[in-house]
Amino acid sequence: MLRLSVLALAAASFAVAGCDGRVAPAVAADAAAPTSFGSVVERGRYLAAIMDCGGCHNAGSFSPRPDAGYLQGAEVGHEVPGMGIFYPPNLTPHPEVGLGRWSVEQIAAAIRSGRRPDGRELAPAMPWRAYSALSDEDALALATYLKSLPPSSHRVAAPATPETAPRPYLTMRSPASAAGGR
After folding, report:
1. What is the DSSP string of 87-145?
2. For residue range 61-111, what is the model confidence (pLDDT) as tens digits?
3. Is there a cis peptide before residue 64, judged by omega within 30 degrees of 0?
4. How many helices (H) and strands (E) would you count in the chain?
5. How many other CB atoms sit within 10 Å of the CB of residue 54?
6. For residue 169, what are the β-bridge partners?
7. Which residues contact 174 (CB under 8 A, 6 or more apart)?
């Protein structure tokens, strides 16, 4: 019972703090999202911030330095039990280790469909199902912003199994699976 209580408390903390463990600052009730932007890139920057892309894709995500390596790919992986460990990729336009060879349209399509240009499905931790509701304009603005970032040569680990994955990685389990249930 204690184990389930600890897991429930951890899950509640995760939900309140966000996926990167930081508590979001309070937003005034009368604060509104900007309705106009000076450029498509500014709109994309705004979307990347409110969609918390850095919460997973920063090199320092899930570390004492969560803002390190902005969108350069994470050092900490996510285990999906039964599927493997996935490391959030480098989202900069580096041609070898980032999105440099993808077009703006391919990036926008992947964000909304959960499929890479080569047909491979994105890791289950990527919330593409929620992002599928983005308008064409917003998806293209986000992709344009990612293409505007300085390229980073930061390479992340490839998908792996628990036996071959570099450490560290996180494993999320439901209370039922942690207790040996379904």
Report:
1. -PPP-S--TTTSSTTS-HHHHHHHHHHSB-TTSPBPPTTS-HHHHTTS-HHHHHHHHHH
2. 988 899 999 999 999 999 988 889 999 999 999 999 999 999 999 999 999
3. no
4. 7, 3
5. 23
6. 77
7. none
Q: What is the pTM of this model?
A: 0.75
Confirm if 57 and 74 have CB atoms less than 8 A apart.
Answer: yes
CA distance 16 to 23: 7
Please report where in the chains the tokens 């986000």 appear, as a residue: 142
> Within a 10 A sphere around the Cβ of 45, how many other Cβ atoms?
18
C-alpha distances (whole Å) from 49 to each of 11, 33, 44, 58, 71 are 23, 12, 9, 12, 11
Q: For 18, phi and psi rounded to 5 degrees?
A: 95, 170
